[in-house]
Write a structure and sequence with these properties.
By secondary structure, this protein is of the alpha/beta class. It has 2 domains: 192 residues, Bordetella uptake gene, domain 1 (D-Maltodextrin-Binding Protein, domain 2, 3-Layer(aba) Sandwich), CATH 3.40.190; 98 residues, Periplasmic binding protein-like II (D-Maltodextrin-Binding Protein, domain 2, 3-Layer(aba) Sandwich), CATH 3.40.190. It is built from 10 helices and 13 strands. A hairpin with a 2-residue loop joins strand 1 and strand 2. Helix 1 packs across helix 8 and helix 5 crosses helix 10.
Length: 331
C-alpha cells in the first residue's frame, strides 16, 4: 500500500521555478468545458529536455485551440515528487495539471514516504507521446543483433556493462527489463546525462545503452553505433528497419518512456473530458506529429480508459522490476 496520497513569454511562477506562458490564441474554438481561470501545467522534469519540449509543443497547440494561455512551471527535484505533490494537493478545478512521464509509475517503488498516491490522488487527462529508446552498441564490437549481444553477455558473465542516465531512470529500467528477460548478468554504469553515457559506448568502454533515438541517430547513420532494437512494442518511425525487442526474440522485454497528463482527483468529469479532447486533437494534428518527430517522440493516442489500463500494467510491471534490480527505495 502506498502512502497517502505540462514558449514564448517567460515569467516567474514561484520562488525557484521559471515557467513559460504559452500562446494565447484569440477566437480559438473548443473553449467549452474548460477551466474557468488560467491553466498552469507543472512539468517535473528539466526545461529543455526532450520530454519538456515535446510536452510544450502539445500545450502550445492546446492553448491556441482553447484561446487561453497555459503557463508551464518546471518543478524539478526529488525524482519529480515535488511537482507531482503540488498537483496532488491543488484545487480540483482543472487549473493545475501535471504533465508527467513514465516516472509516474515508478515513484511508488522508489520513495516510501510519498505524500501522494499516483493512482488515488490523480485523474487521467490523457496520453501525449512516447519516446522510443534504442539499444545501441559500438560498431567496433561487431555485434549486429540483440541475440548476438545476449550471447556475448552470457559468454562473459558479470563482465558486460550497460549505461544509463541514472539509477531508476527510464534508460536504466529499459536495460534491466531487457537483461532480466534475456537472462544474463551485467554491471550497471550510471551517468548524469545521456551524452556522457553515449560517449562511453562510442569509445567501447561501456557495452550497451538504451538511449532516446534523437541523440543516437547521427552516430547510427554514420556507422559508429549499431542499433539492435527499439524498446517500444512497435517499430520507431525514425528507425523503421530496426526491430522491436519482441521481433528480436525477446517478448515482454519492452519498456515505454511516455508523457501523459493528469489532474487532481475529483476534478469535474466535464473538465477532464474537455481537456482530454483538446490534448487528443492537438496530438492528432499533422503540425504536432511533425514537431514530435523532430524531437524523437511519437504521438501516443489512447482513450482515457485505455491509458488507465496501460498505467495499471506499468505499475504491475515496475514493482517486481525495480525489486529485481536490488535498488533500495528512498526512506
Amino acid at each position: 500500500m502506498w502512502n497517502a496520497h505540462l514558449n514564448r513569454r517567460r515569467l516567474l511562477v514561484s520562488g525557484a521555478a521559471i515557467g513559460a506562458a504559452l500562446p494565447f490564441g484569440l477566437g480559438a474554438a473548443g473553449a467549452q468545458n474548460m477551466p474557468a481561470g488560467t491553466i498552469r501545467a507543472i512539468i517535473p522534469f528539466a526545461a529543455g529536455s526532450g520530454s519538456d519540449v515535446a510536452a510544450r509543443a502539445v500545450l502550445d497547440k492546446v492553448s491556441n485551440q482553447i484561446g487561453k494561455p497555459i503557463f508551464v512551471d518546471n518543478r524539478t527535484g526529488a525524482g519529480g515528487t515535488i511537482g507531482a505533490s503540488v498537483v496532488a494537493q491543488a484545487k480540483p478545478d482543472g487549473e493545475t495539471l501535471l504533465i508527467d512521464s513514465s516516472a509516474h509509475t515508478t515513484r511508488p517503488f522508489f520513495y516510501h514516504n510519498l505524500d501522494f498516491d499516483p493512482v488515488k490522488d490523480f485523474v487521467i487527462v490523457g496520453s501525449i507521446a512516447t519516446i522510443p529508446l534504442v539499444l545501441i552498441v559500438s560498431s567496433a564490437k561487431d555485434i549486429k543483433t540483440a541475440r548476438e549481444l545476449v550471447d556475448y553477455a552470457k559468454t562473459n558473465p558479470d563482465k558486460v556493462t550497460y549505461a544509463s542516465g541514472g539509477a531508476g531512470s527510464a534508460t536504466h529500467l529499459a536495460a534491466e527489463r531487457f537483461r532480466l528477460q534475456a537472462g544474463f548478468k551485467g554491471v550497471h554504469v550510471p551517468f548524469r546525462g545521456g551524452q556522457e553515457g553515449m560517449r562511453e559506448v562510442l569509445a567501447g568502454r561501456v557495452d550497451f545503452y538504451f538511449l532516446p533515438i534523437l541523440p543516437a541517430l547521427p552516430f547510427i547513420q554514420n556507422g559508429q553505433l549499431n542499433a539492435l532494437a527499439v524498446s517500444t512494442t512497435e517499430r520507431a518511425k525514425k528507425l523503421p528497419d530496426v526491430p522491436t525487442l519482441a521481433e528480436a526474440g525477446y517478448p515482454n522485454a519492452d519498456y515505454n518512456f511516455w508523457i501523459g497528463g493528469f489532474a487532481p482527483v475529483q476534478t469535474p468529469v466535464a473538465i477532464v473530458d474537455g481537456l482530454h479532447q483538446q490534448i487528443d486533437d492537438a496530438v492528432k494534428s499533422p503540425e504536432i506529429a511533425g514537431k514530435l518527430a523532430s524531437y524523437g517522440a511519437e504521438p501516443m493516442l489512447m482513450s482515457r480508459a485505455d491509458f488507465d489500463v496501460f498505467l495499471k500494467r506499468e505499475l504491475d510491471m515496475n514493482g517486481p522490476l525495480i525489486a529485481a534490480t536490488g535498488m533500495v527505495p528512498e526512506q
